[in-house]
Design a protein that fits this description.
This protein has about 150 residues and is of the alpha+beta class. It has a single domain, classed as Beta-Lactamase (2-Layer Sandwich), CATH 3.30.450.40. It is built from 4 helices and 6 strands. The longest helix is centred in the first third of the chain and has 15 residues. The structure holds methionine sulfoxide.
């Protein structure tokens, strides 16, 4: 069955194969996901500075955030920088180690981006709906990040 996710992976692969810069491609993918998936209200990338142990905000679509730099270990994003594992949060109010970007955010998913086995950053998606993300989102975003990894080799 063709789901919206199958179509989005195909569209993202076309963008990735295009002539634009990496930043433009990442921005186009943020725009695509935020526009096409109803429960994706904020879509952005953070990239790791492994030496400084800091994440830096890259392209994003949605409300501007104060959290342009996040230390490893802090918040959902910072924890993923350390754990190297997808973090799916059904209800952000149940998390002690959480950085609120907006009071309207209810759930979140953060998926690491691996290049040659190294966690170089992540895609972060916020939703204004509780329990918004499923295994399907996780598989989709992991597939998307695998495709994005080709930009960095
Ligand atoms: N909520 C994230 C911070 C980033 S904002 O969602 C854009 C966190 O807890 O790491």
């Amino acid at each position: 069955m063709q789901t919206i996710y199958t179509l989005l992976v195909a569209e993202a692969k076309q963008l990735i194969a295009g002539e634009a810069s990496i930043t433009e491609k990442l921005q186009a993918i943020c725009d695509l996901l935020a526009n096409k998936v109803t429960h994706y209200d904020w879509v952005g990338f953070y990239f790791a500075d492994a030496e400084q142990r800091l994440l830096h905000l890259g392209p994003y679509t949605g409300e501007a955030t104060d959290h342009t730099v996040i230390p490893f270990g802090k918040g959902i994003c910072g924890q993923v920088a350390v754990s190297n594992q997808t973090f799916l949060v059904d209800d952000v109010t149940a998390q002690d180690n959480y950085i609120a970007c907006s009071m309207t955010v209810k759930s979140e998913i953060v998926v690491p981006l691996f290049v040659n086995g190294k966690n170089i950053g992540q895609i972060d998606i916020d939703s204004h709906t509780l329990n918004a993300f499923t295994q399907e989102d996780q598989l989709f975003l992991e597939k998307l990040n695998q495709a994005l990894a080709t930009l960095y080799v």
